[in-house]
Amino acid sequence: MSTQVNFKTINQLAIPATISGIAEPILSITDTAIVGNIPTDSLESLAAAGIVGSFLSMLIWVLGQTRSSISAIISQYLGAGRLEEVKHLPAQAIFFNILLSVVVLVSTVFVIEEIFTLFNAAGKILNYCVSYYSIRVWGFPLTLFTFAIFGIFRGLQNTFYPMVIAIIGAVLNIGLDFLLVYGVEGWIPAMYLEGAAWASLISQAIMALLAFALLMKKTEISMKLVFPLNKELKRVVFMSLNLFVRAIALNVALILAVREATALGDRFIGAHTIAINLWLFAAFFIDGFAAAGNSMGGKLLGAGDYDGLWKLAKKIVLYGMIVSFILMMGGFLFYHPIGHLFSNDTLVLDTFYGIFYIVIFGLPMNTLAFVFDGLFKGLGEMKYLRNVLLTATFLGFVPCLYLGKFLGWGFYAIWVAFVIWMLIRGFALLWKFDRKFRPLVQNP
């Protein structure tokens, strides 16, 4: 089964993947923007939304790795023309993943205050964290289920249906945010921060239902749990475990950043919440080409087409860089208006503007890391991805963060550490790909 590697085929996957990929950060950005402008306690609410959002993102990224494992295996079997052999694998993998997520969910419900105290949340911010999390956490298994189905579609070289689901979820979330946060006089009371949590939960439930319905109607993949277990389930588990460790290392960096920003004061965690949401938004925007690399890379590897794989890597990096430079121009052109979308607090905005340029200048390096990250997942190189993240976090981000703190860099230390973190990730993946696949290519 041949795969054409050109602008059209890459963007048929990349553009829908970009749109679906930014759905999750849009949910967080919407909450951040609307919560940051509520009439009372906006600063405390913004800080709580940022802290809870970071923790939930950690849980989703740590336990949502089955998506990449399923996508890699399905795309490789599709390329080899043996898709029927893994028809029942996704249901088995998703079942065990959701079961694990329920265990994690239940275990956190009883220690909510202790969890957010570790983020240096206290007083009113801690109370808001508890109330916000108590609602949003129930959307956690729904998001994992939706992500896993997105992984199935991605493995089948289909990013269109995830895009449709993501658009519906994002639009619904924005509408519900306005209705439930601010309320409608005489009809719906203003729920403020809790309203944002309910908006996210309802949107996540609708997205999960739509994902399941489209999978059943549009594919031959079965969601019926069948025994004996598929021979590839062991591989899914080990790939997922490597990504599990990787995601923990990734979230060590994100959590330490939140913790240090919170320790600096309310205006710093407010500014960090805005910056990290924009950073994630840009990441998922670029991630469309990573998704194309994931889907097509696995299929090309399964077919043994190394020339096509090399060509794919060069093209998705080029296209990703073009997008990153467009985002950079947009960031500098709308430097101040972007901040006002998220907060009306002068102190928060001044703090945010002080580091926003670091976020913008880091975009090309982020592109290199994200694009190769997606490609390596499609190739099943989960062990190497794990080792790169462990190295980047514990030999790059953490030393840089605390050295900067020792030197008195304050808030800047956090974002300089992010730049070093991404620098290590990007160049380590580029080096490995060149070393492993250049010898297999006839015309590199």
For the report, how would you describe the main beta sheet?
Answer: none
Specify the helix fraction band. Answer: over 70%
Arithmetic mean pLDDT: 85
Q: Are there runs of 5+ residues with pLDDT below 50, and where? A: none
Which strand-content bin applies to the residues?
under 5%
Form type: globular
Instruction: State the end-to-end CA separation.
Output: 22 Å
Order of helices and strands: HHHHHHHHHHHHHHHHHH
Number of strands: 0
What is the C-alpha radius of gyration, as a whole number of Å? 21 Å
Structural class: mainly alpha
Summed up, the domain count is 2
Transmembrane segments: 46-64, 93-112, 132-153, 160-184, 196-215, 236-257, 269-290, 316-335, 355-372, 384-404, 410-431
Membrane topology: Multi-pass membrane protein
Keywords: Antiport, Cell membrane, Ion transport, Membrane, Transmembrane, Transmembrane helix, Transport
Family: Belongs to the multi antimicrobial extrusion (MATE) (TC 2.A.66.1) family.
Question: What's the helix and strand layout?
Answer:
Blueprint: H1 7-21, H2 23-35, H3 42-63, H4 66-79, H5 89-109, H6 112-117, H7 123-136, H8 140-155, H9 160-182, H10 192-218, H11 233-264, H12 266-303, H13 306-333, H14 335-340, H15 346-361, H16 363-378, H17 382-406, H18 411-437
